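Ticket 4471: requesting a sanity check on a complex prediction with succinic acid. Repro inputs:
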Amino acid sequence: MGPYTRALAVAALAALSQASPILPRDDSTNITYAFTNPNGLNFTQMNTTLPNVTIFATGGTIAGSASSNTATTGYQAGALGIQTLIDAVPEMLDIANVAGIQVANVGSPDISSTILLELAHRINTVVCEDDTISGAVVTHGTDTLEETAFFLDATVNCKKPIVIVGAMRPATAISADGPYNLLQSVTLAANQDARDRGALVVLNDRIASAYYVSKTNANSLDTFKALEAGYLGAIVSNEAYFYYPAVQPTGKTAFDVTNVTEIPRVDILYSYLDMSNDTLLSAVENGAEGVVIAGTGAGSTSGTFSSAMSELSDTGFPIVRSTRTGSGEVPYSDSGSISSGFLNPPKARILLGLLLAKGNGVEEIREAFGKVAV
Ligand code: SIN
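Returned structure tokens:
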């Protein structure tokens, strides 16, 4: 199938899905599988000379469908099912035997902590604990991809490559980036050199550490960057090239979430000039068990807000100060609110939620964040 024919096929499938936009869509009916493994994973091919990779689909633009092939905003994210995505890229079957699991089919702002925990539990069970599976791919909307990637980096720790991938253009767009991104992510998940580097993010021919990478532009393909830490490698002609040997991020805390069923609510509050303390009080009143401040500069807040923060911290309520600037560090402090170090607000929020879920108190939380601060 040539690229133009494939684009037409994807557009036709997208048009069909628009007629019945029920989510999540089950497109696995009427498919004959070549092999079903003991965990119930269905493979459309089983070539024993190839590695086995599992794709966990959650929705997003990579599974998105628009009414015009020039629309790159305002379309329906999470419209196409996992089998449609796999069928659109038959080249991946030259790289690996692939099984798809539809975990959700939503726009990524609707990825809940229940979905995050389900992803971690399933990857740990059907990928980590199964010696016959080389790695995992998670397809995801780009808007919150960095949060899920950070979560999986912290909670799946079996050394196998866990690759989180998205797309900036829906499947129906001219030059949709999803199919090649998906092929590259499967290639990476099947690659032994990608092991023991923590979870990885692949978009726009770049390999990034899930721990550090962020979405930096609302529209462009060149959006995922780690401004301080840089990329881990590049993919050229579908060959991965790593700039460095395998290494884990400095200060990373690993979690076993086998018995975790809930992540406590953590809110992010955005700082600005002359900010009042209302949002802090409201977050606490509405059930937040921790708060992350997207502070100005290196984590500053207005005098009014800082006073409210001090009073609340003194009661043992965890408040983490990060920065709204997009990069840089909030330096360590040994009392009062907790510094996020190099973690941006969304990543600090995920870490704080995990620490609270494991029952940690303020001093243990300070210690965990202190590993990423100087
Ligand atoms: C989303 O995050 O679900 C929509 C935007 C995207 O995937 O790029």
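Notes from triage: Residues 60-61, 77, 107-108, 141-143, 166, 168 surround succinic acid (CB under 6 Å). Leaving this open until the requester confirms.
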